[in-house]
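We close this part of the discussion by returning to an individual protein. Part of our work consisted of pairing the sequence of a single chain with a tokenised description of its backbone. The amino acid sequence and the backbone structure tokens for this protein are reproduced below.
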Amino acid sequence: MDYVRRHRWYAGLAIGLVLGLIAGGLWPDAPLHATCTDRVDNYAIATGFVDDDIEAVYFLDFLTGMLRVAVVSNTMPSFQARYEANINADLATVVAFINGGGDARNRGATMATQIQLPQTPKYLMVTGMADIRRGGATRQQPGRSLVYVAETNTGILLAYAVPWSKEKHSANQPDYGALKLWAGDQFSTAIKRPE
């Protein structure tokens, strides 16, 4: 009896192993991509992919309004690519556009209240995957992710793209430049009055 029970267990294990291998071979692979965001006091940091398996780190200084992005070299212990943007300047541009009547499709023909730039901006920052068309003659293309920066006093959301060059990264050539403001609009109309 013990002999039959042991062989039944071996047979069940073998059948389960074969079925597992078959199911594993038929099941599609789904890569896992994780990004993270954190903040403390007047700083925020996030990660996001600029290309397949190449991640950038995004660093936002709330006091100066500077958003800096860096990508680690694939051959040396250093940052190979760096990009930056002045969030405060771009926020002022978007506020001026909205106050001047731009993008009226979401707000009606006139706005009762003009948006005021806050003296002390408060930011939130996250990254997300983006399927931006990549092609053409230029060597620099938008990266695979956008970084979204929200200013909570005005409800304005800014989206930035990294001007990415896979060729420069593969050749480990330094790459420096400006982030591209991809989009900016007001998403919350419950505006906090400036301090």
Summary: The CA atoms of residues 148 and 159 lie 5 Å apart. Helices lie at 2-26, 87-99, 166-170. The longest strand covers residues 141-151. The chain has a mean pLDDT of 78.
